[in-house]
Amino acid sequence: MKAISIRKPGGPEVLEWVEVDDPQSAPGEVVVDVVASALNRADVAQRMGLYPVPPGASVYPGLEVSGRISALGEGVTGWKAGDEVCALLTGGGYAEKVAVPAGQLLTIPEGVGLVEAAALPEATATVWNNVVMTGQLKKGETFLMHGGAGGIGTMAIQIAKAMGARVVTTVSGREQTARVRELGADLTIDFRTEDFTEHGPYDVILDVIGGAYLERNVQSLATDGRLVIIGLQNGLEAQLDLKELVFRRKSVYGTTLRSRPEAQKAAICAEVQEKVWPMIESGAVQQVIDQTVPMAQAAEAHRLLDAGTHLGKILLVNGQV
């Protein structure tokens, strides 16, 4: 088969479409013939040498796919060859085939195409795990999403809105502002010209920025507020006034999905299937796709992601639909 290999750490040009060995289904795994994958910021960090591959994971990038099961490993039940699925991965999605633990498979929601389903697993699992399971967002609370125009942001806005929260998000420019409002954002803040702290307090904040925002994030939390940090796009370190945490009972969580044990990821996928899929099938939540790019042209797709002008997900397609 072919897969996208990272020749060396660097820019998009280091991504190469090369011949590699086919994956084998270990006990408890299936092999999926990949129809599409989707780009995530973690793929960029891996490409640049800033995100080490977890032990035992595929060295090829790609954290989610959609496709068809072609082989089942020992002990797998409830699935069969030919089933159309989407899947949360620890790596290996930029390829023609990938091995996946069976617990990380999801059905395709009704009304969603097989290619488009590749936009769902990582975003839905990340948002549900961090905003709901960890952040404990509740109806009537105020939720702030930093970077609302990206794949995670567009999904978080919709899920939070469907749960009855007041949704605030940071964006850049009029086009992003208009689109995220269509998705349900109650208030948009242009981070280039406005200070998000002036629009708080917030009960839950989902942050992909990291150190540069930590102090202001904590300051703008409501009493008993929860900050969940899932990205480090702008800084690894920051100062923090602990009085803000102690006397106003604020909480800060740092999490990542990729390195979690299989059992935890399986539990998250099961909850996503149960809680989020009905939102998608009812139309309350939809996948937002900026554009599709041939898998072999992953370097060009990464250039688009690096430019930061996309809205929603960029997909890589193998063309075997």
Summarize the structure in words.
This protein is of the alpha/beta class and 321 residues long. The protein folds into two domains: 2-119 and 287-317, Medium-chain alcohol dehydrogenases, catalytic domain (Quinone Oxidoreductase, Chain A, domain 1, Alpha-Beta Complex); 124-254, Rossmann fold (3-Layer(aba) Sandwich). The protein contains nine helices and 15 strands. Strands 3, 4, 5, 6, 7, 14 and 15 form a seven-stranded mixed β-sheet that branches. Strands 10-9-8-11-12-13 form a six-stranded parallel β-sheet, sandwiched between helices. A two-stranded antiparallel ribbon has the order 1-2. The longest helix is centred in the middle third of the chain and has 14 residues, at 121-134. The two termini are 17 Å apart.
Provide a short characterization of the protein structure.
This protein is of the alpha/beta class.
Which term fits the overall shape?
A: globular
Helix tally equals 9
| Rounded average pLDDT | 94
Unreliable parts: none
Assembly type of the chains comes to: single chain
Distance between the termini: 17 Å
Query: What does the radius of gyration come to?
Result: 19 Å
CATH architecture descriptor name of the largest domain: Alpha-Beta Complex
Structural class: alpha/beta
Biggest sheet descriptor: 7 strands, mixed
- CATH class descriptor name of the largest domain: Alpha Beta
User: What is the domain total for the residues?
Assistant: 2
Q: What is the share of helical residues?
A: 25-40%
Run of helices and strands: EEEHEEEEHEHEHEEHEHEHHEHE
Number of strands: 15
